[in-house]
């Protein structure tokens, strides 16, 4: 060891030690206070955990509520849109029937055809699709049979002819197609 280190150690040994009365005495009262503070801390931590848990549950419930309301609003909007379109479909049907029986080269027939095309374009823009039925296999989810007829040209349980077009809005059937089905 170097001399500086030796000298320092000797000084530490020679320093007077504090008397017993100067040393802090841990009493039963101090221990009781310490235990009480620890108990209060544990209680406060448990309340914090409880409050945090309740807050997180409330947040999750609120997010679920918002999502449910958004989903319900979306369904209500689609339902209202479908109801309005269902009311317009008979007018479109009438225009299509008028065009099927139109006289050749009449100016008014061209105007009616233009109106029918505009109405069909509006339906397409709103997501309304015509149900393809002629020649397809009869499906009660999309078709409504108004008659069963014997047919040599079409297989059994296939659509012979469409009497009234059916329409879908997205995945929802607004109006099923009225069809004649082969026996």
Please give a handful of descriptors for the protein shown.
single chain, alpha+beta, Nucleotide Exchange Factor Grpe, Chain A, domain 2, 3-stranded antiparallel β-sheet, 3-stranded mixed β-sheet, 57% helix, rod-shaped
Task: Provide an overview of this structure.
This protein is α+β, with helices and mostly antiparallel strands and 183 residues long. The chain has a domain at 127-183: Roll (Nucleotide Exchange Factor Grpe, Chain A, domain 2), CATH 2.30.22.10. It has helices at 3-14, 28-100, 107-125; strands at residues 128-130, 143-149, 159-164, 167-169, 172-175, 177-182. It has a three-stranded antiparallel β-sheet with strand order 1-4-5. A three-stranded mixed β-sheet has the order 2-6-3, with no helix packed on it. Strand 4 (167-169) and strand 5 form a beta hairpin. The radius of gyration is 43 Å and the shape is rod-shaped. The N and C termini lie far apart (115 Å). The mean pLDDT is 86.
Give the helices and strands, then pairings.
Layout: H1 3-14, H2 28-100, H3 107-125, E1 128-130, E2 143-149, E3 159-164, E4 167-169, E5 172-175, E6 177-182
Parallel strand pairs: 2-6
Antiparallel strand pairs: 1-4, 3-6, 4-5
Helix pairs in contact: 2-3
């Amino acid at each position: 060891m170097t001399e500086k280190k030796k000298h320092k150690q000797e000084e530490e040994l020679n320093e007077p030690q504090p008397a017993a009365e100067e040393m802090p005495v841990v009493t039963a009262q101090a221990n009781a206070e310490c235990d009480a503070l620890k108990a209060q801390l544990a209680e406060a931590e448990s309340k914090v955990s409880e409050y945090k848990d309740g807050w997180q549950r409330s947040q999750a419930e609120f997010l679920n509520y918002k999502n449910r309301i958004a989903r319900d609003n979306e369904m209500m909007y689609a339902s209202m849109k479908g109801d309005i379109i269902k009311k317009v479909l008979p007018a479109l049907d009438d225009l299509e029937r008028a065009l099927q029986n139109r006289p050749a080269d009449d100016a008014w027939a061209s105007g009616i055809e233009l109106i029918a095309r505009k109405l069909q374009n509006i339906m397409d823009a709103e997501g309304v699709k015509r149900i393809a039925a002629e020649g397809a296999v009869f499906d009660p989810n999309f078709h409504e049979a108004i008659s069963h007829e014997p047919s040599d040209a079409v297989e059994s349980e296939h659509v012979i002819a469409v009497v009234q077009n059916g329409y879908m809005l997205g995945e929802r059937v607004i109006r099923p197609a009225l069809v004649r089905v082969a026996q």
